[in-house]
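Open question from group meeting: does this chain pack into something compact, or does most of it stay loose? Before anyone orders reagents, we agreed to write out a predicted structure and look at it together. Recording both the input and the output here so the notebook holds the full record.
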Amino acid sequence: MRLKQVSLSAAISVVAGLTTAVVGLTGPAALADSTASLPLAHFAHMVADPAHQHLFFSQGAGSTGILVTDLSGTPVTTITDEQGATGLALSADGSTLYAALADGDAVAAVDTATLTESTRYPTGTGSAPVSVAVAGGRVWYGYETADGKGAIGSVDASGTVSTPSLSHWSVPPQLAAGGGVLAAEEPLQSLSHVATFDVSSGTATAKADTDVFGGTATGLQVTGDGATVLLAAVQQPALQVYRTSDLMRANPAPYYTGAVGPDSLAIDTDGTIASASTAGLYLYAGSNLAENHVTFPDGTTVAPDGLAWGGDGTTLYAVTRDSAGAYALDVLGSAKLTDTTLSLNWPRYAVPTQQFTFTGTLATRGFLPAGAALQVTRDGEPLPDTTVGADGTFAVSDTRQDAGTYTYQVSYAGDITHRPATADLKVYVARLSTTVVAPEIDSASPRSVVIKGTLTPELGFGSFPQGTTIDVSRIDEDTQETVQLPSVTVDPATEEFTVTDAPEAAGWFTYRLSYAGDATHEPGSDDVSLTVSAYAPALTLKAPATATRATALSFTGKLGDAPYPAGETVTVTRTDAAHTTTPATWTAPVAADGTVTVKDTPAVGGANTYTVSYPGDAAHKAATASAIVQVSRATSTVTVTTDKSTYAYGATATVTAHLGTTYNGRTVSVYATPAGGRKTLLKTGTVDSKGNLKATYKPTRSTVYTASFGGDYRYAPATATHSAATQVKIAERLGSYYTSTTYGGVTYRVYHHTVQPQVVGVVTPDKSGQCMKFQAQEYYSGAWHTIGTSSCFSMDPNSTGVTHLALTHAVNQRFRVRTEYLHSSKDTSNADTWGGWLYLTVRN
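Structure tokens returned:
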């Protein structure tokens, strides 16, 4: 049984620990200050006129007017008779709105005070201007030429229209101006043709003209310093940035718009860039540092070229379109304010009188307000401020004298670019609960009980002072008697302690381990129940490894956990070849120190196994040990022979094993082990009256033959081996002959004198790579004479050798040829072998 004490404060702390952080969020950046429906069938361009509190909206080709609203999107009027108004631009002083009239072949000038057209500048029949920009005291417009291509025209202050040759354009280009620089763009599939001009003097001077990454641009702007041109095209995954001086990519790299091509662009006077795609609205500081990502309701996106800054340094206007095609104006008054997040992390632990610290992080997009002060309160009471570090982290430390729950609040007031944020954290201050843990012990001996335990504070927090002790008592569960034992000391470094005891009795005991607690730790306890069992003595035997048969033998053994009472005995059994199922049995006394002496005179040779068994008593468990003594036996004689020293491939070998004198065993086993093969039993049996046992075997390789005698009561086992070589099988044939004949009953192959006879030899088993020789003989003077023996031919992977005979002056002569296999030092599995003779003759 195990008992534990758990304090109420510990339970509270555990509940508190289930949450690891508290986060304070600012309001979502996705919400507009206001949204107003716009009575537009189409949308082309928007211009903000903060001086007169107006917004202007053009609707492109096919429209007849320019919508005017106040800065909240409430319609004010429609400037009529503005045929196909598309591109819009304000004059430098804001007094005039210029509109490119795609259907009116003109540029209209609208008085922004009276909201009426004051002047119209014709641009030529069929010119259909689509874009307009104001720079260098002139109004620049992109229009269509008579041959259907594009060009750039301008109107000066006197109203004079001019059409300078500014690059070559296949369509009317889009225009943008800033810092005395005019930029023009036309789409080229996934590229854009872009040209820049210095127009600060009123006359255009080319700066750069090339193709860049772009496409169908719906946003083109030049920064206020005239150094950079930005291009938004849906064919590109980001907003592209180029130097106006040479149209090379500018640093920083392109502005990310959610991996979706941007279709809107606006640059505020402070360099803040707003760019929109179907993934939402993205805002960047001039350093390319991302500030905010504004999202819109599902199905709603910013219309192409639908962004404009209000000129007040804060307000951004966005024309949006929902899934039904309806247009609206979103007024974003705090788009530049970056969201901030305060995260508070739980302290390690809070206990009375001890300082604790919790940490937190202030996170934001854009520039991190490092060094900013954060206000801290505890239950509404102000505490010293803490400061945000360079990495956004901070720490708050406090000390509480009393247990309880305390609420800490950390607040960030915000600044001109960051929203405020606040986060709360509850800290539970309580004494640490402690756990006394000791493993259950299944058993212990009467003279040795050892319990190793640990004293652990809650969640591993808080250390114990030097000299901390555990109180120990032992309860006899049979008699319910309790004995107080000496206290044990806890090691403060490891939090471990050790209890040692000697109850001097067997039985069931419970050890109670108690910790009284201290100023910061709750009390704790644990119960360990265990059985004190009888000793399990070790029994060791010191028997000799060998002994002489029929000679007296004596050896000793020793039982551990002495002393032993007088009169105790052990049982000794002996198992040998003659006593495999009914061993010999006798007893031997046990001395007080546990010594046992075994005496015997073994009559049977071989392995004699002595087993000593102690039955046990009230204080000791049973024990058993065995020892093997090899008892001497006489030497027996075994031989093995074969009827031949060398065998043809597959011939039958007769193997004879001979057994000499033995006592009561006459069984022999005969084995064959072919070269490179496994040992195989050929025969096991009793030898005949002459001591012989015969077996047969068909070898295919040179073979080692083994005869084995297993031994008997008085004679030891014996083994003998004998090796016999085996030849290979050679298959031979002649090739390329044209007929056959016979001489003296022998078949001869007949060859034409121009043919070199082919001789083929095939060896079994596989001897690929081994040596084959060819020998040729000629018959004359009544006998066969050797005319040549070849050098070695290396047999191919099919274990085949091939040669051709070159016979000179051989017509009407008789010949014979044969092959020979010669084994190498790497192949000892078969003996050298000659093949049979093949006969041939030669004719004209």
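Observations to bring back to the group:
The chain is about 0% helix and 50% strand.
The radius of gyration is 55 Å.
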